[in-house]
Design a protein that fits this description.
71 residues; alpha+beta
Amino acid sequence: KQRIEGMVYLSSVVLSNGTGQGIKIIRSSGSKILDEEAIVTIKRASPFPPIPKEIHASFAQMEVSVVFTLK
């Protein structure tokens, strides 16, 4: 409705059991609405698949970009 487009860059930590935490905006889209929705989108995607045991890691750092475009 508001015709807003943009890209938000986020970082988060994924624990060995797949739980996501510590979502932070690395680079804002410039729109508070899009930034907030990007965070909600990552929260909705959690839990992520667990880290395979053979990797021997208690967490993984994740960086993603969420793109909002109108079609």
